């Protein structure tokens, strides 16, 4: 993409009404625009990161054997009466009446609808296990929408639902989701710690929330600092292997890590004092096992091996896709702007032309642009007729992990400058070497193929 042809409305002034850094930078970098309280338009740069995150979620769900569907945002109230949640959900549920006076609602989550799909089409245990998921807009009429995309009223969420014959099978599905979520967050450059949590209005027995530690987080968390040493890394996992998934589950959830809702002071005190941490976190996902709560209420049964009908065991599993943009920025930024992890960056490298209109500099930038593109990477070329300082400030604000700076002086010696956004370190090298370096870096993230 060439900046001269892009739509990147970067703000000169830092927006004053935004209280936390991610909200401020998302507005300032021209990623989002508020439409009304807690409701945002996604401008090109923000939309691009949103899609990168969405792609990672889809890829990791596919690896776990989960199947993507898409359900409507507007649903009939009747289904929600069957489960009892139409009245129970409270004021966060946006209720809508259509022209025929039918009561409808904007979906805050989709247990009812997916259970209805299941009961209409699945009748035998032989069709199990089954996990269906979607990535879809949700609406919750939050009392205090705030912090930009962190607590919106409209927000983008991955919601998945497992259907299993037995509790044991459903607990495997729970563990499988935990593993797939660990991988998903790590690919985004995030450490999200599973913590024992409270089930809230969805209801259930077993539940963990995934929290990214950040001072601006809305949840108070208590944990053994040893949990921050755990990483999933690039180990192989067979998602059908019950023992393997259970072992990961145990590894990541045995040490003390709880939100304030489930915090137990006595248990916490058993953790060695120097490892006892009280901090704040951003909830970026949650997994639930709730058994037969919805299947019994809504008649979602299958014929078991003995021919008798049994209600299926279920769980639901969510990732806050739009909230993740805020969480990633909270975890990765400096005073000059965002620092995108390579896995989610909107563009893989910025090209800054220090002397637009200089034949040699222009040609070198065009060549770099073509080489990076041919290698499967997406560069953002600042080809505007602007001062170098302004170009650097824009690149720093929008946070691309790598910048190639091209100017007549360097080109005389056959070099350009490759700069890391994170460390600020620069290295001079031939343009081809810079391309080769970037190809190598992104290969580790399975991006581009040189
Ligand atoms: P919270 O406790 O933050 O209100 P929740 O527990 O009600 O969230 P879930 O039903 O678990 O939310 O939804 C799954 C994920 O969707 C959450 O882990 C969170 O990342 C995201 N999410 C929930 N509410 C919002 C919101 N208002 N704005 C943005 N993301 C949200
Ligand atoms: Mg939750």
TrEMBL record:
InterPro entries: aa-tRNA-synt_IIb, aa-tRNA-synth_II, aa-tRNA-synth_II/BPL/LPL, Anticodon-bd, Anticodon-bd_dom_sf, Pro-tRNA-ligase_IIa, Pro-tRNA_synthetase, Prolyl-tRNA_ligase_IIa_type2. Its EC number is 6.1.1.15. One of its GO terms (molecular function) is proline-tRNA ligase activity. It is found in: Cytoplasm. Pfam families: HGTP_anticodon (PF03129), tRNA-synt_2b (PF00587). It comes from the Bacteria. Keywords: Aminoacyl-tRNA synthetase, ATP-binding, Cytoplasm, Ligase, Nucleotide-binding, Protein biosynthesis. GO terms for cellular component: cytosol. It catalyses: tRNA(Pro) + L-proline + ATP = L-prolyl-tRNA(Pro) + AMP + diphosphate. Its main location: cytoplasm. GO terms for biological process: prolyl-tRNA aminoacylation. Residues 33-341 form the Aminoacyl-transfer RNA synthetases class-II family profile domain. NCBIfam families: PRK12325.1. HAMAP family: Pro_tRNA_synth_type2 (MF_01570). Homodimer. Catalyzes the attachment of proline to tRNA(Pro) in a two-step reaction: proline is first activated by ATP to form Pro-AMP and then transferred to the acceptor end of tRNA(Pro). Belongs to the class-II aminoacyl-tRNA synthetase family. ProS type 2 subfamily. This is Proline--tRNA ligase.
């Amino acid at each position: 993409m060439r900046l001269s042809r892009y739509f990147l409305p970067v703000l000169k002034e830092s927006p004053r009404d935004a209280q936390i850094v991610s909200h401020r930078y998302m507005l300032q970098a021209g990623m989002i625009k508020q439409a009304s309280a807690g409701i945002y338009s996604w401008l090109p740069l923000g939309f691009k990161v949103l899609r990168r995150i969405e792609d990672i979620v889809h890829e990791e769900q596919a690896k776990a054997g989960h199947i993507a569907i898409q359900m409507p945002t507007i649903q009939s109230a009747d289904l929600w009466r069957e489960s009892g949640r139409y009245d129970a959900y409270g004021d966060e549920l946006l209720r809508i009446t259509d022209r025929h006076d039918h009561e409808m609602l904007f979906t805050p989550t989709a247990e009812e609808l997916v259970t209805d799909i299941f009961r209409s089409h699945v009748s035998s245990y032989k069709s199990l296990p089954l996990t269906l998921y979607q990535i879809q807009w949700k609406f919750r009429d939050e009392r205090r929408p705030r912090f930009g995309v962190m607590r919106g009223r409209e927000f983008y969420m991955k919601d998945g639902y497992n259907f299993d014959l037995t509790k044991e099978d459903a607990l495997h599905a729970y563990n499988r989701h935990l593993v797939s979520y660990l991988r998903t967050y790590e690919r985004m450059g995030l450490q999200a710690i599973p913590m024992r949590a409270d089930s809230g209005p969805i209801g259930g027995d077993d539940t963990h929330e995934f929290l990214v530690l950040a001072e601006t987080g809305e949840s108070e968390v208590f944990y053994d600092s040893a949990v921050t040493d755990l990483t999933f890394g690039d180990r192989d996992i067979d998602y059908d292997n019950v023992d393997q998934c259970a072992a990961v589950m145990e590894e990541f959830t045995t040490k003390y890590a709880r939100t304030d809702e489930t915090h137990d002071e006595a248990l916490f005190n058993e953790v060695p004092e120097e490892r006892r941490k009280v901090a704040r976190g951003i909830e970026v996902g949650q997994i639930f096992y709730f058994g037969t709560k919805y299947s019994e209420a809504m008649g979602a049964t299958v014929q078991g091996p003995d021919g008798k009908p049994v209600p299926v065991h279920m769980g639901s599993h969510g990732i806050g896709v739009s909230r993740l943009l805020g969480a990633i920025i909270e975890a990765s930024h400096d005073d000059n702007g965002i620092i995108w992890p390579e896995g989610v960056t909107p563009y893989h490298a910025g090209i800054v032309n220090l002397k637009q209109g200089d034949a040699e500099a222009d040609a070198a930038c065009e060549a770099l642009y073509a080489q990076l593109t041919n290698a499967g990477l997406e560069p953002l070329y600042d080809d505007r007729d602007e001062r170098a300082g302004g170009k650097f400030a824009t690149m720093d604000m929008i946070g691309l992990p790598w910048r190639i700076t091209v100017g007549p002086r360097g080109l005389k010696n056959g070099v350009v400058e490759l700069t890391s956004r994170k460390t600020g370190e620069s290295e001079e090298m031939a343009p081809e070497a810079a391309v080769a370096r970037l190809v190598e870096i992104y290969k580790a993230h399975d991006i581009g193929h040189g």
